[in-house]
Specification:
The chain crosses the membrane at residues 12-35, 47-65, 71-101, 132-152, 198-215, 236-255, 312-330, 350-370, 377-397, 403-428. With 446 residues, the chain is an all-alpha fold. Helix content is 65%, strand content 1%. The protein is built from 18 helices and two strands. It is globular.
Length: 446
């Protein structure tokens, strides 16, 4: 009984630590972005604008009120990039890395919190995993910057090209979606590189690399091409990620970009299928998409990346568990299985709860914004899906929204980054016993 109580308190305390960590970094980032040195014009930035930008950066979303390239100075862009890096790797990961470097002992509480933060299966080896996350992140981001450098150095000069390469590599791997291409056209993202093969390939690879999760990268490191030795979770992530890239790309290719030249058609179709989960870059004008195309992007944004990754959203594993559970019902099977492994009932309940939480917040937020701003519901839902999925794609309305709408988006971005399961553990202060004082009675569903 004592162990059970400790486990409950651990979950609650872990949430508090993670939430306070994120909130502290967001507040500090907001204060730094309010300084005159953070803007190119040398003017102060309002607290709400700074808070929105800092939240979007720490929650690796990419929704912006001010264009990153034209409004923020080099100092401001540096603050944003640092917030993105901290948010991408995770507050607790950074804290434990600093503790290890300083020689401090990592206690059980810190290890438990780290386990929650990266969705690790056990507490054991958590410090080693933290070191692996740091090394993997730095290595991949440097490789991405090196690959992008020839293009950006050619277009913007050597030193600015190096800065642009590093900024976009970190932003892409952390699935943040912040860009500096607004110096050509504000809020244009990567539309000017829609047919540039290096930029397209590197950015897409970085997005996927950051979105599959660090535990999956650990499987790749340990087992290489021996897929049978991978965790079931890694196999599910690979399968779902592949499907969610391939099928939307086919739709975009045949229906959204049918009038585009073939080469560009291939690139923009692939890029727009990768970026909604949950990067926020775009190489096509999303306002020109049909409502079906925009709805497909909304669905992809809500799904998001994978557990223990730099991405947000409900997660690919949540979708996989729900679909597999539904198939089990259709086939009249008692249990849900993946790759010869049974899924616990508790996992299915958690997945259903997370799905419901995301859908309710997404819909309610969209309806309130639509009513408050007097804009089409689809447009408002696109923004709320982007916020709660920590994506950053927009139909161009974010800078013009009012105070209430911006606060709603800030809250949704924070929820999307902290994670649904963490909030579930936080709100359940005491696990109810299996028994019930109420008699059982069947209810028909469906």
């Amino acid at each position: 009984m004592q162990q059970t109580n400790r486990s409950r308190h651990r979950h609650i305390t872990s949430f508090q630590v993670i939430s306070l960590g994120f909130l502290s970094v967001i507040l500090l980032g907001s204060l730094l972005l309010m300084l005159p040195i953070a803007t190119k014009s040398g003017q102060y930035t309002s607290f709400l604008d700074a808070l929105f930008t800092a939240t979007s950066a720490v929650c690796v979303t990419g929704l912006v009120i001010k264009d990153t390239a034209t409004y923020w100075s080099l100092f401001g862009q540096g603050v944003i990039l640092l917030l993105i890096q901290i948010g991408g790797m995770g507050i607790i990961t950074i804290a434990i890395a600093i503790a290890v470097v300083s020689g401090r002992k990592i206690g059980l509480m810190q290890r438990s919190t780290m386990q929650e933060a990266i969705s690790a299966p056990t507490v054991g080896g958590i410090v080693r995993r933290t070191q692996f996350i740091i090394r993997t992140t730095i290595f991949i981001e440097i490789i991405g910057a090196v690959l992008l450098a020839p293009v950006f150095c050619r277009d913007f000069g050597f030193w600015k090209g190096i800065w642009y390469s590093l900024f976009h590599s970190i932003s892409a791997f952390c699935n943040a979606g912040f860009d500096l291409i607004g110096i050509r056209t504000p809020f244009s993202s990567l539309t000017s590189y829609s047919v540039q093969p290096i930029v397209n390939l590197v950015i897409m690879m970085l997005i996927v690399a950051g979105g599959i999760g660090f535990l999956t990268w650990e499987d790749i490191k340990n087992h290489k091409w021996h897929l049978k030795k991978y965790r079931m979770q890694s196999k599910v992530i690979f399968m779902v990620t592949g499907i969610l890239i391939f099928l939307p790309a086919l739709y975009f290719f045949y229906f959204e970009f049918s009038n585009v030249p073939l080469t560009e058609r291939v690139w923009v179709s692939l890029f727009q299928s990768v970026t909604p989960r949950t990067a926020g870059f775009n190489t096509a004008d999303l306002t020109l998409f049909s409502e079906v195309g925009q709805m497909l992007i909304i669905m992809l944004m809500l799904i998001g990346g994978s557990p223990g990754s730099t991405a947000g959203g409900m997660k690919t594993t949540t979708l996989a568990v729900l679909v597999s559970s539904a198939l089990s019902v259709f086939r009249k099977k008692e249990h849900t299985h993946f790759f010869g492994r049974q899924i616990p009932d508790g996992t299915i309940r958690n997945a259903a709860t997370i799905f419901l939480m995301y859908i309710v917040l997404f819909l309610v937020g969209g309806m309130v914004i639509s009513s408050t701003e007097d804009i089409p519901l689809m447009t408002a839902l696109f923004e709320t899906a982007s916020a709660i999925g920590t994506v950053g794609l927009s139909l161009g309305i974010t800078p013009d929204l009012g105070l209430v709408s911006h606060i709603i988006l800030i809250c949704l971005m924070f929820f999307g980054r902290v994670g649904g399961l963490t909030l579930i553990f936080a709100t359940i202060s005491e696990k109810k016993p299996n028994g019930s004082k109420y008699p059982q009675e069947k209810i028909t569903v469906g």
